[in-house]
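Q: Okay, next protein. This is DUF1697 domain-containing protein from Streptomyces formicae. I've checked the sequence twice, so it should be correct. Can you predict the 3D structure?
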Amino acid sequence: MANRYAALLRGINVGGHKKVPMARLRALLEGLGYDGVRTHLQSGNAVFAADGGNEGTHAAAIEQAIEKEFGFAVDVLVRDAAYLKAVADACPFPAADLEPKQLHVTYFSAPVDAARFAAVDRAAFLPEDFQLGDRVLYLYAPDGLGRSKLGAKLSTPALNRGMIATSRNWNTVTRLVEMTHD
């Protein structure tokens, strides 16, 4: 039986840069031999089924195909259905009591530990807060990510050095779980 995955593309279709139309992305993924390909929004979320391979091999194949097709590099994280559900289930914030715009998940390409974020003065950003999980950071931003001073601090290159990091709001997090479990 094929495994279900989500591909999270970083930094596409933002401000007219790195344009990747979703219809072309679906065709590209189907051309790689993936089944059941669907996309969500224009911000680079695709789900697919695959026999064999793993998150890393699928991400590398998609990155190479995008660069060949569109002429620019895009970082891609691929996560399987079980992982996506575990991330949603492990949310340390009361997701059911919050507006989806108040809760965000940053997915990382590798495990992150508290030492990486130890210099962040969390008290200075209250009521905003963050918690680390399995290759993720959960961010509570009561006024939304666009106004989040903590979100801006956490996304600095110094804190994310050596890793791919891409964020999704809670609506997208839960929708990707649904899409990979349909």
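A: Here is a summary of the prediction. The mean pLDDT is 93. The longest strand covers residues 3-9.
Q: Noted. On to the next one.
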